[in-house]
Amino acid sequence: MRLHDRVSRMPRARRLVWYDWAGTPRGANHIGMIDHCTSSTIWVWEGDHHHRVGLVERPRDSQIMGYGEWWEFIARTAAPADDSRPVG
């Protein structure tokens, strides 16, 4: 996982969360996007959770590698979308 000064130890809505699941090869091997959190739990949108996308409740534990602040970075650097062209 490359840091680029975008990784935090504090969860927040819309941040990405990287996991290093116990019993798997060391390193980031799952990711999700935080919906909301409490002091002990995060609710995360994840793909491939029982072969579907869903909102999953997870403990804030040692399997979490970090939280990525991607939204602020994208919002500042992305060009405006060109919605004038039809899709397809």
Structure description:
There is one protein chain. With 88 residues, this protein is mainly β. Helices cover 8% and strands 35% of the residues. It contains one helix and six strands; from the N terminus they run ββββββα. It is globular. The chain starts with 6 loop residues before the first strand and ends in an 11-residue tail after the last helix. The mean pLDDT is 81.
Radius of gyration: 15 Å
Mean pLDDT: 81
Shape: globular
Structural class: mainly beta
Largest sheet: 6 strands, antiparallel
Helices, by number, come to 1
- Topology, number of strands: 6
Q: Give the H and E element order.
A: EEEEEEH
Strand content: 35-45%
Distance, first to last CA: 34 Å
Task: List low-pLDDT spans.
Answer: none
Summarize the amount of helix as a percent range. Answer: under 10%
What is the spatial order of strands in the main beta sheet? 1-6-2-3-4-5
